[in-house]
Design a protein that fits this description.
Length: 945
């Protein structure tokens, strides 16, 4: 029988205990800030602590009319908030601190409070401000020395206050329940056990002596109840990382009853605990527990080197290319500014899309096991432009295992293959990036191609193929060398020096094949700066540091874009980086780019995959859109509760990938080819890491995964989250949040996020976000490609329809409504009017499945604009075009970049809502002059300067 005295902490000086706890927290905060880069500034922390001290002492004075001691509790509460809560607005910290301290004084029974103030603050923040707060459990990582320090400090303080049973019982119960109901993955369980955030919670929040039971029996009941409720809440609230905090908050409501029981020496805790145990056991062994459905036999033995399966070759339909069908759209000499136009063929207003069958359906990727790794699964590029000067947009794609494919548009969106006609020797290799643009100012589109750096022993250079009008082929003209074998995050094009020649900015990502590098360092670009190739004297030279003197980018560069954010006529620059700080620049009058001050950008997305200026609300100013890997924890955690059966859908990767850690699937259930290879490759990797068998790593076919497998086996600590990859320098750069964001310029000159809802903010593992007014209501929508099978399973693509009013953005994810919630591995996408009817069509390039062609059936009125310049670069890249109507000002930029794997055609589209009347269209050219034009709806204009 458990019995014992009321906890001895009452016999100790409370101030002594609070000082002891305060020293612990100060030490841990210093470690977190100095070594782990906690994403909260020193100034913010100091202000929160000072504010908490002032508020708590004011409340003490108002209650007791005296003030004869210092409240260490206020400091402990403030530091607890700084440890575990992240708020995008500083005022939120102050609000939750006030709530936490107020309840401590006024929510009492028998003179004792029963809610932990720090816990109240965290729960209040997450529940009252769901779109402005989050927690960062991974920030503390899983380093053994930090976990050991937390454990020693925690056990010492909890022993002193008679609460050591609570963390020990909670840990045992929670891990047992996790294994029973959530996952059989021992690595996942081990990570929980040594996670810094978990240890902070159990030792420094769960065990507050003033808000927990004193009797050992009730302490056991208290700990088991919180562990059980946490497991129950996991499927519901896991997405907010709130489950433990919320479970503690709910169970704390019953602490007064436990105190009554212990005061009466009642043994109710035994019966309640017994009931909980019986209930848990009943569910554990019932069909309600899906983990009971897992196969009991071990997975099939993995073959050492699965040979590549032969692919059936299907000839792509082709025909001779018709050239120069619209010579009036591609004049190279003219005397005066003028415009030519052609009518669009608008359809009646309807809704949604129709899938178009054709040549794209034949472009099946040729995927092999060597492609199933981070080195090949990032890119499925696509670009659009009018190659043959017939007034229709053609496509250039990179398809995994097939290389470059160019498709010519016959009209009305019908495509045929023309790659062989356009090259004397077609370039070989997997393509990571494609840009169709006129680099040399001769009116013909050229091709900038970046090949996958792992096809050959040395990385192939980025290649510029100029179009030769005489032979009507693309001819290799320039090679931009790779400084390292790194993949590319993206390209951006601009004529920076006004010589009518385009200058490419190339963002470098990571060398996936570097064998001796920790896997968590993928967010760094191996210490090599990005490249900015500037034209001059008939060639290009790398001159980035002349234009971007700060900082040196040691980051995984993602998308880059030149955009005039402040409307001063000079190009500004946005560079998204994965996990590390984004770089946002204004160009000064001296032509040099300077970082936008940290205080002027509220925050950025944590894992930037698209960073660009867009017009979201027709107020005459550009907003900044950034999409991110915005996975919710619900997906990541509950995937282990799913199971595979003989009826598994062989056409989806998700069931396999979500169970890769269980090692339970018989890969022979799947037909030979891609699905079986994916299953085998994932299981080989996971089995090697789980068992520590380095020899199994040699059976992994993909080189990146093989290197990573070996590293994780040799360095088992890295199988846990390592804090290095979560460092954020919030003293110099804006903090980063785990969601998509839309930054709008406020009257005080700051960019503030106005997205504000999970429907648009959490779109899964997001890649390309392409802006286009698909439904012609006058506001730009965003189609977002998604999916990362080898890491997180498939994700449903997103379609953010724009329901804004001028000055008030509003985006809503309506992918399911319009039938575009695809479970493919999407990458690049083009949104453009491919059939000349004025509304938006979509072509989505997928990683493992053929591209998808969707014809828009929204109808409605629109205006399409192209630019031609003799004084600047031919297609007017860098121009800003404003369409003024009776409803507002639509702003578009002639820009290339900012969208993952998707290079925009140099064609601008303006949708018009019903009843919307055009006043004028103004073009501000890259060289600073402006021209104004009277235009009509439902026409395609080509404007010459």
């Amino acid at each position: 029988m458990l019995s014992g005295p009321v906890a001895s902490w009452r016999s100790l000086d409370p101030a002594t205990i609070q000082r002891h706890q305060l020293l612990n927290l100060i030490f841990l905060f210093a470690v977190g800030k100095l070594l782990l880069n906690l994403p909260i500034t020193w100034l913010e922390t100091g202000l929160i602590v000072g504010f908490a001290i002032a508020v708590d002492h004011l409340l003490i004075y108002l209650k007791a009319r005296r003030l004869d001691f210092f409240s260490y509790s206020a400091v402990n509460t403030a530091l607890g908030v700084a440890f575990l809560l992240r708020a995008v607005e500083f005022e939120i910290y102050l609000i939750v601190v006030v709530l936490a301290l107020a309840q401590k004084h006024w929510l009492r029974i028998d003179g004792r409070h029963f809610f932990n103030p720090s816990n109240v603050a965290v729960v209040a923040g997450l529940m009252l401000f769901p779109y402005a707060t989050y927690t960062t459990p991974e920030q503390w990582g899983g380093q053994w020395w930090l976990g050991a320090a937390m454990t020693v400090l925690g056990l010492f303080i909890t022993y002193r206050v008679g609460r050591v049973l609570i963390p020990l019982v909670f840990t045992a119960a929670y891990l047992a329940l996790t294994y029973t109901f959530i996952t059989h993955n021992t690595t996942e369980i081990l990570f929980t056990l040594v996670s810094g955030s978990f240890l902070l919670f159990i030792y420094f929040m769960l065990t507050d002596p003033r808000s927990t039971p004193d009797h050992p029996g009730y302490q056991i009941l208290y700990a088991v109840a919180i562990a059980t409720l946490t497991t129950v809440l996991e499927p519901t609230f896991g997405a907010r990382d709130i489950t433990m905090f919320l479970a503690l908050f709910i169970v704390s409501m019953f602490v007064p009853l436990m105190r009554i029981g212990q005061a009466r020496r009642a043994h109710a805790w035994r019966y309640v605990l017994g009931g909980v145990a019986v209930g848990v056991a009943a569910v554990a062994f019932s069909p309600l527990n899906t983990l009971n459905q897992l196969p009991t036999t071990s997975a099939v033995q993995v073959e050492a080197q699965a040979p590549d399966a032969a692919s059936d070759e299907v000839a792509l339909p082709s025909e001779p290319i018709a050239w120069n069908g619209r010579p009036d759209w591609y004049q190279t000499r003219w005397e005066d500014p003028h415009a030519v136009s052609a009518p669009l063929t608008p359809q009646p207003r309807d809704h949604g899309f129709t899938r178009i069958s054709g040549v794209l359906d034949l472009l099946t990727p040729r995927v092999r096991r060597r492609h199933i790794g981070m080195d090949y699964t990032y890119h499925g590029p696509i670009s659009a432009g009018d190659i043959n000067h017939d007034g229709k947009l053609d496509l250039a794609l990179g398809v995994l295992g097939r290389g470059l494919t160019i498709l010519i548009n016959r009209g009305e969106g019908s495509l045929f293959a023309a790659t062989e006609q356009l090259f004397e020797t077609v370039p070989k290799g997997n393509v990571d990036q494609i840009a169709l643009a006129d680099f040399d100012g001769d009116s013909h589109l050229d091709l900038l191609i970046s090949f996958n750096p792992y096809e050959d022993p040395t990385a192939p250079p980025n290649r510029l193929y100029r179009f030769d009008p005489a032979s009507r082929t693309f001819v290799l003209a320039k090679m931009f060398p790779h400084p390292v074998r790194a993949t590319l995050g993206g390209d951006a094009l601009i004529d920076i020096n006004g010589d009518r020649i385009l200058d490419p900015y190339i963002a470098l990502a990571h060398d996936w094949h570097k064998a001796d590098k920790p896997p968590s360092s993928y967010m760094r670009s191996d210490g090599v700066a990005n490249q900015f190739w500037i034209s001059g004297n008939g060639d290009w030279r790398e001159r980035k540091t002349e234009y971007f003197p700060q900082p040196f980018e040691e980051h995984a560069g993602m998308t880059a874009m030149f955009t005039d954010l402040n409307g001063d006529g000079r190009p500004d620059f946005l560079l998204g980086n994965d996990l590390q700080p984004d770089l946002s620049y204004f160009m000064g009058a001296d032509g040099i780019f300077a970082l936008i001050p940290r205080r002027d950008i509220e925050y950025n997305s944590l894992t930037s995959m698209g960073y660009m200026g867009i017009d979201a609300d027709n107020d005459g100013a550009l907003e900044i859109w950034e999409n991110s890997i915005s996975l919710d924890v619900l997906t990541l955690r509950t995937r282990y509760g799913e199971y595979l059966s003989a009826e598994v859908d062989d056409d989806l990767f998700t069931p396999i990938v979500r169970n890769q850690d269980l090692l339970s699937h018989d890969c022979t259930q799947l037909r030979p080819g891609l699905h079986r290879d994916l299953c085998l490759e994932l299981q080989t990797f996971r089995r090697a890491v789980r068992t520590g068998d380095r020899a199994l790593c040699d059976q992994v076919v993909n080189q990146e995964e093989r290197n990573r497998c070996r590293y994780l086996v040799d360095n088992p600590a890295y199988s846990l989250a390592h804090p290095e990859k979560f460092k954020q320098d919030v003293e110099r750069f804006p903090r980063k949040v785990k969601k998509n964001i839309l930054l709008k310029l406020a009257p005080d000159g700051r960019y503030l996020d106005v997205l504000g809802n999970d429907n648009a903010a959490l779109t899964g593992w997001s890649w390309a976000a392409f802006p286009f007014d698909l439904d012609n209501n006058g506001f730009q929508d965003l189609f977002i490609t998604t999916g990362m099978a080898i890491s997180a399973g498939n994700a449903v693509s997103a379609l953010l329809m724009n329901h804004s009013t001028p000055g008030h953005p509003s985006l809503v994810n309506q992918a399911r409504l319009y039938g575009v919630d695809f479970l493919d591995e999407d990458r690049g996408v083009i949104a453009a009017d491919l059939d000349g009817d004025g509304d938006g069509d979509l072509v989505i390039n997928n990683l493992y499945t053929p591209p998808i062609h969707l014809e828009g059936r929204f109808g409605g009125d629109a205006v399409v604009v192209e630019l031609r310049s003799q004084r600047g670069n031919y297609y007017g890249i860098g121009s800003r075009v404003e369409l003024r109507t009776n409803r507002g000002i639509q702003v578009r930029e002639m820009a290339v970049g900012g969208v993952w794997d998707s290079m925009q055609p140099q064609v601008l589209h303006f949708g018009l809502a019903e009843g919307e009347k055009i006043d004028s269209l103004t073009v501000r050219w890259p060289y600073g002059e402006s021209t104004t034009h009277e235009i009509e709806p439902n026409r395609h204009y080509v404007i010459y300067d």
